[in-house]
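General statements about sequence and structure are easier to judge against a single worked case. When preparing material for the folding task, we compiled for one chain both its residues and its backbone structure tokens. The amino acid sequence and the backbone structure tokens for this protein are reproduced below:
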Amino acid sequence: MDSDEVDSIQLQTLHPYHPGKILSIKEAFVTLTIYLEPKVHYLTEKSIEVLRTHTTPYTSQIMTIAKPHLEKVQVVLEPYTKNVRHGFKKLVESTKVYHR
């Protein structure tokens, strides 16, 4: 490469973009978006469907295993939940008064 070629390349890269180039890039992006949108929706729906079919048995197994433990925790925490409920009611009432 001689210096003239380097200068022309530098001028091309430093030359400001023409509005026509930006519009054509924008149009190409819009076209690509319009083309890809239904395909992305289809793939997303199929992925969620497959995910649900594969995870449903495991979710039910986890719930079956965890249910007795959660019931024990609920019994142990019962005295504390009354205080929490009372505090939450007070909070709700005070926000109702504040936002009138």
